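Lecture 7 notes: from sequence to structure.

We start with a single chain of 153 residues. Read the sequence below before looking at the structure.
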Amino acid sequence: MNIRLADNQDTASLVEFNQAMALETEGKRLDEATLTAGVRAVFASDERGFYAVAEENGSVLGGLLVTREWSDWRNAWFWWIQSVYVVPEARGKGLYRELSAFVWTMAREAGDVCGIRLYVEKENRIAQAVYQRLGMHETDYLMYEQSSPNFGK
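Now the structure, written as tokens:
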């Protein structure tokens, strides 16, 4: 298993993973053109974050996105793990554990990261158990959102 930073050549896999995850976890079908542009935008600007992927024998089997949130309280960054996906046939083999270890190592080396966060669907007990086994814990915060089709346009 090779864990590495993703690059433009991984765009098709990351789009496929995001499509599959949205359908599997939320029953949503994402617009492929918008999603592809969103993945490419990450590669176009380090400010948007970075992807890490797990590959074996030249096949990408999983990936995740890391974005950043500034904490004025801590004068440091929180890194957010998002868009986690492992292909079904590779689940249960520790791919997410290896991906997260890769990210945690990068965070420690960065020196200005105060924590790593992620959000998970309330009903996704399997993912929650994985995150807990890796030392993460549920926070005291709830997430609220206001979205609009006109935001960002």
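The radius of gyration is 16 Å. Keep this in mind for problem set 3.
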